[in-house]
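Anyone have C-alpha cells for Heme A synthase? Sequence:
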Amino acid sequence: MLLVLLMGAVVTKTDSGDGCGNSWPLCYGELLPTQPKLETIIEVSHRYVSAWLGILVIILAIWAWKRDPHRKEVKILAGSAVFFIVLQGLLGAAAVIWSQSSAVLASHFGFSLVSFASVLLLALLSFEKREDPFVARVSEAFKKNLYWLFAYLYAVVYTGALVRHTGSSMGCGPEFPSCSGTIADLGSQASIHLLHRIAAIVLLIWIIYSWYHARKHYKEQKALNKGLQFAALFVLLQGISGAMIVLSNLNLFVALSHGLIISFLFGTLSFVALIVYRK
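Reply: yep, here.
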C-alpha cells in the first residue's frame, strides 16, 4: 500500500499522469509500450502495481471476513479497503480518459489513504491478543475530540493534495515561513498554499494538546498514549518536510518523504480512533 502511495506521488510530482495519453487500461493501445519515454514508464508501472495491489486487497478482505465473521470492525475495514481502492482506481482512470478538475484529482490521494488505513488496521487486528485487546477507555468528550481531530486531519490532507494538483507548492515563493505571493485572490496559488500552512499549524497544536491531555488524564491507557505520541512525532516531521519542500525548491525525494510521513500520521490516528471506538 505504501509503495503504491509513493508511486502515485511520483506520477504527480513528475507530471507523468499523461504518460500514456488518454488510453486506459492499455498504454497507447499496448500492454507494454514500445520505446517508452520516462513518464510513460512511470505511469505504466503505477498502473500495473496498483492493479496487483487491488487483487491483493480483495483477497485480504475475503480472508478477513472468513477468519473473523463476528467482529464488526473487521467487516467494516475489509469493505472499506476494497471500496476505496476500487474508487481511487476508477478516479485515476477517469483522470486519464477525461480531464478532471484539481479538486477531483486531490480526492484521489485521500481515497488512497483511507484504503491504506483500512488495510493497516486489519493487519493490526490480526495480531491482536484476546487477553490484551486494542481498547482505550476515555470520556465521551475526549472521544469526540479525537473523532473530530481525525476528521480534521482528512481535511488537511485534502488541502495538501490540492496544493500539489494546482501546482501551488511554491505559491508563497522560495522562502519559509513568510509568504511573498498574492493572497488577496482566493483562487491564487499563494492563497491555496497559505491555507494549507495554516491548517497544518492548527493540526500540530491540536495533536500536541490531545497527547498532553491523554498523558495527564489517561496514563494507564498505554496504546492511546503511544498512538498520540507517534502522531505528535509524525506531525512535527510532516511540518519539517513541508518546509524543506519549499527551501529545497521542490526536491523530489523531500516531496516523497512528505507524502510518506502523512501516510504514517493518518494510519496512526486511524488506530487511535479505532481503539477509542471499540467497547
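The mean pLDDT is 86.
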